[in-house]
UniProtKB/TrEMBL annotation:
Gene3D superfamilies: 2.60.200.40, Probable inorganic polyphosphate/atp-NAD kinase, domain 1. The keyword Transferase applies. This is sphingosine kinase. PROSITE patterns: DAGK. InterPro entries: ATP-NAD_kinase_N, Diacylglycerol_kinase_cat_dom, Lipid_Phosphate_FormReg, NAD/diacylglycerol_kinase_sf. It comes from Sula dactylatra (Masked booby). GO terms for molecular function: ATP binding; sphingosine kinase activity. GO terms for biological process: cellular response to growth factor stimulus; negative regulation of apoptotic process; sphingosine biosynthetic process. GO terms for cellular component: cytoplasm; endomembrane system; membrane. Keywords: ATP-binding, Kinase, Membrane, Nucleotide-binding, Transferase. It is an enzyme of class 2 (transferase). Its EC number is 2.7.1.91. It is found in: Endomembrane system. Its main location: membrane.
């Protein structure tokens, strides 16, 4: 559920049914507590019936949305950080009926260390910059109003043949190491990234890679083949 300027909002039917996928370990480990204290009362007031699925391990949500019959729910709600939504999107894209199921609205409720998508939605909805429970309240209010619009996905195929889908971007090298290495400091909330950055700076790793790209395609003619950038 991500309103953007200029989009015409679609309103979900009332009452509607939501599957909430919640990671209790997200952020500082308060996702379930915040859901019960902030989100549940608002959803009940808005006449939104919820089924809460609490993840117990990595890729649990991925498997749930990949294999489950989702026809009984009108929307999928992720109460966690960006990582759990990444799992959900990639699980949905592995379904044989992915073209139809991806038309089902997705909602992100911030409960993680980094809540980039939720913050972006809050911004494009015209709200002031906020964080923590205020951001959670704003995003829950968007869900309660049933507002939704289209969201772009990025597709990446690796040399090993794996394919991933992202709603924000892909990281490699230093940024990815910060994210992965700071996982053990999850209880610190957003401060984990600061500590992870300092540790990665101290290690001074070297990353070697090869970049290929497609030049801009002219309006007429055959698209050119990928090529390596010129040497510096």
């Amino acid at each position: 559920l991500s309103p953007r300027p200029g989009d015409s909002y679609g309103v979900l039917p009332r009452p509607f049914r939501a599957l909430v996928l919640l990671n209790p370990q997200s952020g500082a480990g308060r996702a379930l507590e915040d859901f019960q204290a902030v989100v549940q009362p608002m959803l009940a007031e808005a006449d939104i019936a919820t089924t809460v699925f609490i993840t117990e391990r990595p890729h649990h949500a991925h498997e749930k949305v990949r294999d489950e019959d989702l026809s009984q729910w009108d929307t999928l709600v992720v109460m966690a950080g960006d990582g759990l939504l990444f799992e959900v999107v990639n699980g949905l894209m592995e379904r044989p009926d992915w073209e139809d199921i991806m038309k089902k609205p997705l909602c992100i409720l911030p409960g993680g260390s980094g809540n980039a998508l939720a913050a972006s939605i809050n911004h494009y909805a015209g709200n002031d910059h906020v964080a923590k429970k205020k951001l959670l309240t704003n995003c829950t209010f968007i869900l309660c109003k049933g507002l939704h619009t289209q969201m772009d996905l990025v597709s990446l195929s690796t040399a090993s043949g794996k394919r991933f889908f992202s709603f924000l971007g892909f990281g490699w090298g230093f940024i990815s190491d910060v994210d992965i290495d700071s996982e053990k400091y999850r209880r610190l909330g957003n401060a984990r990234f600061t500590l992870g950055t300092l540790q990665c700076l101290a290690k001074l790793r070297v990353y070697q890679g090869r970049l290929s790209y497609l030049p801009a395609v002219p309006e007429q003619g055959t698209p050119p083949a990928p090529r390596d950038p010129p040497a510096p």
